[in-house]
Model the fold of this input.
Amino acid sequence: MKCILALLLCTILSSDGFQINPSIRAGVVVQKQQQKYNVVDRKRDFALNLFEKKKEKSATTLAVDEEENWTDFGKSPVTYAYGAAWLLLVSFAFIFAPGELGSPSDTAFLKSILDNPTAPEGVNPFFFGIFNEFALIPIVLGCTISPRTSDEKNVIPVGIPLFLSSFIAFFVIGPYLALRKTPSTEEQVEDDWITQNIWENKIFNYVTVVFGILCLASAAPGFADPAESWKGCLEFIGSSRFAAVSVADLSMITLILTKEVADDYKIRCNPENQDRAGIIGASTALLPILGTAIYCAARPSLPSAANSES
Done:
């Protein structure tokens, strides 16, 4: 027994004895570090995957928001200008315009037109000729706005505002112009059947010009005594809210058409002629509404329409 104990004691003193072999110890340390790093890597991968999922979700949400965005109001200063013009017209109509809403004189004026649309009795001929130009408004607006209407989804349909513009003009077309999707500015425009066969039809455009001249010709009786007729026209506008608002509405449409005509010309003309767009647009104001009808009859055809004809 003493020999065995002495042998064990010598073994412990002369060697590592019960100490762990360094190679084994290193292997255990490496294994523990590897396990530690695996945990860290798993946490990092989880965080990266979670971040990427959030990015994908954000992109999807952005795409949905983009698709559901039915208006481009605020993306261009022009939208604010159209909105401000509409507010100005509404304020004038209900606050600042002369006369009263639904006054007997306004009621009598409308009744005379309904009873005899071609030659109403007791109506100033000069104002009647101006008032008849409202019949051209949906036509010239359709000719200048529809060919550039955005083909994106969830856009405001242009048909209803154009139809109602015959009666309340800028009161309805103003909000449409402010809220619509940004019109196309490219040379090639995807035009629909109505654009190809009505708004871009030269025969229709020339008939519109003739119709506009006939509307103005209704003022011809006033030229028997032009000074008196003009004086009566100004007095009627200065005393009748309906007449004052009608003239303001017509003037607002005339101004916005100068911009719409200029933009319409830019998608039709050669690139070297685009600097003429502003002058051409402004020239239409010389003959309110009728000037735009003349432009539509004389303007170049859309590139897409010209290519299809050739």
Residues 68-309 form one domain. The longest helix spans residues 22-68.
